[in-house]
Amino acid sequence: MQGFELKTGFSCNKVISGLKLPVCCHKAFLIIAYLTFFCSGFAHAHSIVGKSEKNILIIFAQSPSTPAYRLLIEGIRQKLDDEYGTGYNLHSEYLELEHYPKDAYPQERFNIYNQKYKSIKLDLLICVGVDIASTIKKHADSYLLKLPVVTIDYDLSRYGMKYDLAPNDKTALVSLKLNLGRTLHLAMDLFPRATNVYFICGVAKSDSLFLLMSQQEAAKIKHNKKVIFFTDISMDEVLKKVRNLQANSIVMLSSFVMDSRKLPYYNYESFRLISKACNVPVFAYTDMGFGEGAIGGYILSFRKAAETAGKAAVYILNGGNPRLVKVTESDFYEYLFDLRQLKHWNIENSPAIPEGSKIMYKDTDFLDVYKWQILAVMLFIILESILIVYLFRINRRQKEIMNQKAEAEFLYRKIIREERLHRMSELTASLSHELNQPLTATIYNTQAVKRRINSENPDLDKINDILDHIIKDNKRAGGIISSIRSLMKLESREKENMNLNNVIHDTVRLCFPDINQHHVSVDISVPEKPVFVSGDRIQLQQVLLNFISNANNAMLKTTSGERRITITLKEDENWAIVSVSDTGPGIDEKIKDRIFNPFITSGQNGFGIGLALSRTIIENHGGKIFASNLPGGGAEFSFSLKVKNT
């Protein structure tokens, strides 16, 4: 079965292919990609929420400059990104084993890694490179050896080279079983007239490994073919030789990481230089040189190997058993060909090309390939244009509505102010009596001070007490006037922490003369301790004033019975509830459900704005307002506010 397999029957596979397109094609494709990104971004972000952060250590056998490592780490990271998003940490270390003789890696250098990761809770160890498992087992501390492991290494058993691939019994093996013979025989099938086979290898350790395998495969070639090896020479000498190779020849370029002068080369660079200079077909064994001049063949794909390792890593991190991971040859090998090279050597229609091979770098008609995407973009542009026109019209209509709303709000605020003035006109007569008391007391106290000052032995302490009374009476009168002026203002003030007990007493004091004039008694029941809320004192006074005034006016309609207003304040969990009840006729059932709507009133002289304004004030304070008829007669109006902890 093709794909990454588990013994449990789990299977998944992903085919990676690509096209080289002109710059303009890429730009158009990016537009589509951006649209897709915005549609899928939030879903992807949501899918990674709640997953614990993972810590993965990946140890490479050779130096960071090894070209295959970049492909491997990118492929593994992509799978981790798909599964965990940013919810993981990938730590990378490079042992650089190529600088040391076999089995002579210094313990003191590995101890650096042992110490570095001792304090990090690792979830997975990934080992990458030739015979890296033996170095890990020999030098790693026990906490590293107890981790689940994914090993990415060559399986060279086909060529008689065996070594341990598993650092422990919790290892998932992504063993890349090399098969150079398939590409070699495929090359000879594509060019059956070829009589010379040239093998080119560098002198690095990895180059020498491919050289040994190439020598074994060369020994199997028929005797009518001539085999020539170019190795242990400089890149300049290689380029000089391949410019003038004999006709009917093919070149097998396995690996060329370093030349005889110890000059390093990336495989991409080596293939590009050699293929460009070579006058005969060039074949590669891996995808490290594919696309740089090699025809292709049965290619070891490090991209596919990385994808397979990434799947295994995710499976293990999610609780899977490493020993159930089973990798097949199709997980890292594929028949891959460069169409440009096939055409160059006139073999694009050769029957020797295996069925199902992946042909890359095709000449494509952009309009034909992306016609549906182009139609989608055009449709999107048309719909977007329609939407812009529609939004423009909506915006213009919205401005008209906003202007109408502003005018309506201005009229509403004027009505609110008129309602306040109406309330104040009702209280004017009684307030004059309320102001008369502190003013009269001030006159009497002032005359008393003058008499004591003119006496032979003035009592200074007594004079000081009288002056304190004068100040107190003046403050009282000033407070009454300030309350009246504030209630008559149109604007509101910043919220403050206030004691509801004081607000209730101040409001009752403000309207008490009018209540007393109509022979109405007032009972106030509040807790002994202060009850603090956050709000606008004047606005809350206005709500209470509306409640008390409505209760007073309601009882004027009764001709018998006691006229009593009861004001209570109580706490229910974190809420302060203020209630004003009366002994009047109660709320008319016809308007009971609409009592807090604007312009709903049972009075003859009212605007029907007071209770609607009270509801707005209380809701702006984050509270609730409600009204009900009492079982024994009368009505009760209440509001609740969140208690402010001080």
Describe this structure in words.
It is built from 17 helices and 22 strands. The N terminus is likely disordered. It is of the alpha/beta class and 646 residues long. It has 3 domains: 206 residues, Response regulator (Rossmann fold, 3-Layer(aba) Sandwich), CATH 3.40.50; 105 residues, Response regulator (Rossmann fold); 154 residues, 2-Layer Sandwich (Heat Shock Protein 90). The protein starts with a strand and ends with a strand. 46% of the residues lie in helices and 18% in strands.
Helices, strands, pairings?
Layout: E1 4-6, E2 11-12, H1 23-47, E3 54-60, H2 67-84, E4 88-94, H3 107-116, E5 124-128, H4 132-139, H5 142-145, E6 149-155, E7 171-177, H6 180-190, E8 196-201, H7 205-218, E9 226-230, H8 235-242, E10 249-255, H9 267-277, E11 282-284, E12 296-300, H10 302-317, E13 325-326, E14 333-338, H11 339-344, E15 358-360, H12 366-369, H13 371-454, H14 460-488, E16 496-499, H15 500-517, E17 521-525, E18 532-535, H16 537-555, E19 564-572, E20 575-581, H17 610-620, E21 624-629, E22 635-642
Parallel strand pairs: 3-4, 3-5, 5-6, 6-7, 8-9, 8-10, 10-11, 14-15, 17-19
Antiparallel strand pairs: 1-2, 1-13, 12-14, 16-18, 19-20, 20-22, 21-22
Helix pairs in contact: 2-10, 8-9, 13-14, 13-15, 15-16, 16-17
